[in-house]
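Hi R.,

As promised on Friday, here is the backbone we talked about, encoded as structure tokens. Could you run it through your design pipeline when you get a chance and send me back a sequence?
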């Protein structure tokens, strides 16, 4: 293993340790000493890669979201169909739902940190990162919806950017309710209803009905 690979492996080890510490203790109570202990390295070694606890915290969330983006972009590469791409997005969210519950405290800490930065009237590292993240996702989903409109699959009079924002808000809201444990049950039935409901909103009623037929056992031929 070369020096660059060793350095990257050590950095990833620190990030994994930091994720555990932040998730367990929250940002305010987490310390670089605790991260170093979790990673099994000296405190000074952490500072060789990250200048502060804030940078470490931001990097943990950024790395996690980067993995998410790469995974969904790879999935989108399997098809050029706007409908199929949106369905893949729902599938990806569903498959990652349990992971989001595991890192729920970290997610809430990130949102809270960004909110504090924005409320104080200045642009901080977390608010900047989230603004960029949401802008990329919104642009990507807006493009998919606009493509569906151009192909006649979705309603032409829908605002694609607004539709993309509603989709993002829906998934964020469900994730938040799951993290808070307020009674929502995320299962295959909910996933199907989400897919069908959003297709209906977009005007893709035929695709919505086909989805139900594909996902629902044949009621006319009970086994």
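Update: got your reply. Pasting your designed sequence below so it's all in one thread:
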């Amino acid at each position: 293993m070369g020096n660059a690979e060793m350095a990257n492996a050590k950095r990833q080890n620190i990030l994994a340790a930091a994720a555990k510490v932040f998730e367990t203790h929250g940002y305010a109570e987490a310390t670089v000493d605790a991260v170093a202990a979790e990673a099994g390295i000296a405190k000074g070694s952490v500072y060789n890669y990250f200048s502060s606890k804030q940078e470490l915290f931001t990097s943990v969330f950024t790395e996690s979201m980067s993995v998410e983006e790469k995974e969904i972009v790879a999935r989108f590469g399997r098809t050029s169909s706007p409908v199929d791409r949106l369905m893949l997005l729902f599938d990806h969210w569903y498959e990652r739902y349990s992971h989001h519950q595991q890192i729920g405290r970290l997610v809430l800490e990130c949102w809270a940190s960004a909110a504090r930065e924005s409320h104080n009237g200045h642009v901080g590292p977390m608010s900047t990162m989230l603004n960029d993240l949401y802008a990329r996702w919104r642009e990507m989903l807006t493009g998919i919806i606009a493509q569906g409109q151009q192909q006649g699959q979705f309603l032409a009079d829908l605002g694609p950017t607004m539709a993309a924002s509603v989709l993002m808000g829906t998934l964020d809201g469900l994730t938040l309710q799951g993290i808070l444990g307020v009674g929502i049950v995320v299962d295959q039935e909910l996933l199907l209803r989400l897919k069908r409901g959003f297709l209906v909103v977009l005007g893709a009623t035929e695709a919505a009905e086909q989805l139900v037929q594909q996902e629902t056992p044949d009621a006319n031929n009970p086994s």
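One thing I noticed while checking it: Confidence is low (pLDDT under 50) at residues 218-223.

Thanks again,
M.
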